[in-house]
Amino acid sequence: MIDINDFLSEPIRSGMVAIVGPPNAGKSTLMNYLLGQKISIVSHKPQTTRNRILGVVNDDKYQIVLLDTPGLHKARQPLNREMVRIAMESLNEVDVIVYMIDVSLPLPEKVEQEKNKEMMEQMEGVAAPVILVLNKVDLLEKERLLPMMKRYSELFPFHGVLPLSALTGEGTEVVVEELLKLLPLGPRYFPEDVPTDASERFLAAEIVREKVFILTGQEIPYSTAVTIESFQDDETKKMTTIHATIVLERNSQKGIVIGKGGKKLKSIGTAARKDIEKMLGQKVLLKLWVKVRKDWSKDERFLKELGF
């Protein structure tokens, strides 16, 4: 006879945590570190993350569902406004908020005051407890850290002001400990072997876009979208064939992405293929095309096609 209790597990600490903050604060790096694998794409350029990415940190005693969000900034273009909207909506859906800032670069006092004001305005009215994470402290002079933590703790009723290096992992254990104090008891949201709810198609497109960010000049990445035209698995050959299109806004950008003799596009494809093979655990045949869709970042219809 089947006992229903065999399917019920003891309550654990489980809940949703939004990682928010300004562009290039290290949000994606933190999530990837906590997951122990790469889910969110990363580059040194701001506004790399455009969509909300979900990652699941599993342990015998807890499950933390992380939401990596686009950077909070003053947005003017439709694409940027959608990115900020996605990030702000996440604040209303979670049990805890981790607000990350990069403290490695000294800022003029006026600029720092403006950024702190923006942060407090963004957190105003949120119901969930907020932990402030000071990232890149490994690049900070040690004597500056304690006064900085005290100063930030006086700005807003944070449930903690924690130093961190998302790149090296320094301080991540303390962040997890503080999160577990705030998360409720409950069931797991996802099976223990599920690291994300993102589809392989979506992640493949993100990987291609990451390589464009890394391998092209300043003006190109922000004018780039990637669509997956086909994604086919061949179980006999143990190979996945992917056809993807890099979409640009202007004809002048096309030659830059393709490069002389197609070298730049080949470099993008090779780098992306290696990461996709690592993700899928098998060989990948990646075919890339480049096309121009004039001012796509202002085209609300196309933005919906991209999932915004």
**CATH overall fold name of the largest domain:** Rossmann fold
Q: Indicate the mean pLDDT.
A: 85
Rounded to an integer in angstroms, the radius of gyration calculated over CA atoms is: 21 Å
Helix content: 25-40%
CATH class of the largest domain: Alpha Beta
Distance between the termini: 48 Å
CATH architecture level-2 label of the largest domain: 3-Layer(aba) Sandwich
CATH H-tier superfamily of the largest domain: P-loop containing nucleotide triphosphate hydrolases
In one word, what is the shape?
Answer: globular
- Enumerate the spans where pLDDT stays under 50 for 5 or more consecutive residues: 1-8
Q: How many structural units, i.e. domains?
A: 2
Please summarize the sheet with the most strands.
Answer: 7 strands, mixed
Structural class: alpha/beta
Number of strands: 10
Region (G5): 164-166
Region (G3): 68-71
Domain Era-type G: 13-185
Region (G1): 21-28
Any overview of this molecule?
With 308 residues, the chain is α/β, with parallel strands linked by helices. It folds into two domains: 183 residues, Rossmann fold (3-Layer(aba) Sandwich); 106 residues, GMP Synthetase, Chain A, domain 3 (2-Layer Sandwich), CATH 3.30.300. It has nine helices and ten strands. The strands form two sheets. Strands 1, 2, 3, 4, 5, 6 and 7 form a seven-stranded mixed sheet that branches. A hairpin with a 4-residue loop joins strand 8 and strand 9. Helix 6 packs antiparallel against helix 8. The radius of gyration is 21 Å and the shape is globular. The N and C termini lie far apart (48 Å). The N terminus is likely disordered. Its main location: cytoplasm. It is found in: Cytoplasm; Cell inner membrane.
